[in-house]
Queue: 2 jobs
Job 1
Amino acid sequence: MKPLILIVEDEVSLVTLLRYNLERAGFAVASAGDGEEALLLAAERTPDLVLLDWMLPRLSGIEVCRQLRRRAETRTTPIIMLTARGEEGDRIRGLNVGADDYVTKPFSPTELIARVNAVLRRTKPAAGADTLACADLSMDLAGHRVRRGDRSIHLGPTEYRLLRYFLSNQRRVFSREQLLNAVWGTDVHVEPRTVDVHIRRLRKAINAEGEIDLIRTVRAAGYALESKPGS
Ligand code: CA
């Protein structure tokens, strides 16, 4: 599958130019004209890289960057900021909120594509890292498939994100609040109790009868995923 680049830019002629050049370079392209649309598109399908303009209607580039970083799916998605010449302060703020690189306007499409490729090379996980595993439980990130032993497991979107977060941070104990922030995002108001509901569903889905429960409940602290719970 072609890597998906999400262009977030309100200048239509620049979007057209970028789209044309990126598609010619072998990328799939999605585009959003403002920050809110960008967040919706990124939630629909996680892009492999985001080109993010700074001056946007509705939500600023900084805010979009911050919100993408808060969500589990886009926490590590590379972001290249597109800034106007001389906006030094924006660049620094952008790198502070988690952008990976920046390109100053005006730029040539060739230069931008070189940067895109460089950032993708730098941030792409090593071969094989697109599968997360704990004991006999495994998650294929590209195919969105979860298995335990020979059994294939069907998870709802929240349980999937929850499990993905646990698999990426094994043996660490997370409070309900930490899980809410990481999996639901801080802009969503959800009761901490909701976490328990989804943990229960996740447990039911991944643990068949007789199998070891991989999720450890830590009294008064939260939950952890471990290959040998209790050890
Ligand atoms: Ca703009």
Job 2
Amino acid sequence: MKDEIKKFAVLGHPISHSLSPQIHLLFAREFSINLGYEKFDTKQDDFLERIKSLKDEGYYGLNITLPLKFSAFQICDELSERSSLCKSVNTLTFLGKNIIGDSTDGRGLINDLSYKKIDIKGKNIFLVGSGGAANGAIYDLIQSKPKKIFLTNRTFTKAIEMKKYWKFFAEKNQVILETIDLDFSKKLYFDLIINATSSSLTTQHSPLQEHAFNCLNDEGACYDMMYGSQTPFMREAYKKTNSVYDGLGMLVEQAAVSFNIWHQLAPATENVRTALKNL
Ligand code: ATR
């Protein structure tokens, strides 16, 4: 009997730029798995209907990207602790009648940092942004046991709310959370600055200015979760250090965790990173 092809897709809006199909097909090649992976442009209003029809059509799993990660979180019958706390789901699995949700963005970030040999245990992290991307990653940042995570946001009240929300989980993991203004003036020391804002989509200005980058330790690194082209944050960061990274590795690593959830196989990411850089 011929093996049935397992069907997957990524949903979001816009979606035409998504690299998820290429990534999953490259992973699948390593294990000679025959799978289908499509992308469907899906707006908020069409989300529930799309989920229902793909479930009925026998899709095995879906990746969910912006702006649907919270909606995906809301429709799950079962959630991992991580996605439940982050209130974000980027990986859905249809299991019988049930929809299982997980979030792999944070693990994608941590695995990419580890690939880049950036150790955050016991270190000071400056996390810029308090939206979906930051809240989706902080669970795994906290679990990696940095000493302290400084939180900031253009709308400062959101940084304060974020600290309040994650306080208990941070304390449980002996991690200190502290909020600081975007344009703080005191001298601080960071080992890693992460840009989790979407500012590069709308402006040519870096969300952080020179003073913040000057607080980076000599061995420190700067990481923008965005990928595609050099962002204003990255340009500003390069004035201080050469250890500046975009989020392409995070994209590949979060996909690898999704792949593992669906196929119980851990794909090698090195070749896929290279392939994407050459696209
Ligand atoms: P995402 O899911 O991509 O994080 P989001 O939840 O809308 O999207 O959050 C976007 C984040 O980028 C927010 O932290 C936002 O700051 P505000 O809360 O003040 O809106 C931040 N952001 C967007 N544009 C920015 C800019 N030009 N400068 C600084 N921060 C910006």
